[in-house]
Write a structure and sequence with these properties.
The chain is an alpha/beta fold. The chain has two domains: 147 residues, ATPase, nucleotide binding domain (Nucleotidyltransferase, domain 5, 2-Layer Sandwich); 187 residues, Nucleotidyltransferase, domain 5, CATH 3.30.420.40. It is built from eleven helices and twelve strands. The two termini are 29 Å apart. The structure holds 5'-O-[(R)-(carboxyoxy)(hydroxy)phosphoryl]adenosine (KG4) and zinc ion. Zinc ion (ZN) binds next to α4.
């Protein structure tokens, strides 16, 4: 069966086609709004939805042309329906819904977070159950994933998402958006020690918090009389050397926190007597970070577990993960989906 999906929950408009018989992503077309939002240091919702609206039909038509298919040959239409910027979500989901209903084909609304959690399974055989750290600009959560339809939320962030912390700190020290890749690139240049020793979370539960870490970076600059908090301005601009040291210390702190939470997750799954975890998975935009991936792979090896992270095409927001999970929802509930013409939403928490 052919599933076509749209992802428009934030700053990427992406359309992908998944063939469930071949278990393969056939093609995708995308447009990234990074340059549109770069000067603001974050995503501006109105600009994001205007951009989705202006590009979505071109992407859809160009994908069909590329694979030499017509609308009628698609079996099922899908889109991200939640969570995300509502004005942006509406564009992708209404676009797909309109085509589906016109053709009397089913429409499947997919939860973005589930898309990320199972993105790791698109092109590799992951051993279930797995502990999944899903980390992006909008969310940071730890799940125990039993199978494609059962998962438990073990913990989530109380404030900033980890990608958001990367973006904010990058903006603060004058690096381009998105902050994660900028900080990772810079941190690689640092040859010294962890100069700043930013605080690590002390609690042993599975919940995250990154606003304290963000504040610690700002206060380190205030204490060194480099930054004035009241005026929100730099007293003396940072040198390149100072930026790479901050980037390095920040990344070390984030990496340690994520390792600690993964260990708490393993402990929690055992304490709850859940079937034994076989793998550790790392998904979401932050899963592109090689430093963090290295640390989490070490945790897996140390505990005799498999380690998986989403392939780099499927880490950031993408429609392939939405089409893939739509196919799993269909597999699970085909009769009801066909009868109703649409799916009952599934939420991970
Ligand atoms: O999954 P995603 O595309 O969108 C959301 O659902 O939010 O993730 C985007 C986030 C941004 O915050 C970006 O800074 C972060 O992923 N990111 C990274 C890296 N590449 C992207 N964070 C750390 N290291 C990276 N290499
Ligand atoms: Zn995402």
């Amino acid at each position: 069966m052919l599933f076509i999906a749209c992802e428009s929950s934030c700053d990427d408009t992406d359309i992908a086609l998944f063939d469930s018989d071949k278990n393969k992503v056939i093609a995708s077309e995308s447009f990234s709004q990074i340059s549109l939002h770069a000067s603001f240091g974050g995503v501006i919702p109105d600009k994001a939805s205007e951009s989705h609206l202006s590009i979505i039909d071109h992407l859809y038509l160009s994908l069909l042309k590329k694979v030499e298919l017509t609308n009628e040959m698609i079996d099922c239409f899908a889109a991200t329906v939640t969570p995300g910027l509502s004005s942006a979500l509406l564009i992708g989901s209404n676009f797909m819904k309109a085509i589906a209903w016109d053709l009397k084909k089913p429409f499947i609304g997919v939860n973005h977070l589930l898309g990320h959690v199972y993105s790791v399974c698109i092109d590799q055989e992951v051993q279930f159950p797995y502990l999944c750290l899903s980390a992006s600009g909008g969310h940071t959560s730890l799940y125990y994933v039993k199978n494609f339809y059962e998962l438990f939320l073990l913990g989530k962030t109380a404030d900033d998402a980890v990608g958001e912390a990367f973006d904010k700190i990058a903006h603060f020290i004058g690096l381009p958006y998105p902050g994660g890749p900028s900080i990772e690139r810079l941190a690689r240049e640092w040859q010294g020690n962890d100069e700043y020793q930013f605080p690590r979370l002390k609690n042993n539960d599975c919940n995250f918090s990154f606003s304290g870490l963000k504040t610690a970076v700002i206060y380190a600059m205030v204490e060194r009389k480099r930054y004035e908090l009241k005026k929100k301005s730099w007293l003396i601009p940072l040198s390149h050397e100072e930026k790479i040291s901050i980037a390095y210390s920040f990344l070390e702190a984030v990496s340690d926190i994520l390792v600690k939470k993964m260990l708490s997750g393993l402990y929690e799954a055992e304490r709850m007597s859940l079937p034994k975890v076989r793998s550790i998975a790392f998904v979401g935009g932050v899963a592109r970070n090689e430093r963090i991936k290295f640390s989490l792979r070490e945790v897996a090896h140390h505990h005799g577990l498999y380690f998986f992270s989403s392939s780099s095409n499927y880490c950031m927001d993408n429609a392939a993960m939405i089409a893939f999970y739509a196919s799993k929802m269909y597999e699970h509930d085909a009769k009801n989906i066909i009868d109703a013409g649409y799916s009952v939403p599934i939420s991970p928490n």
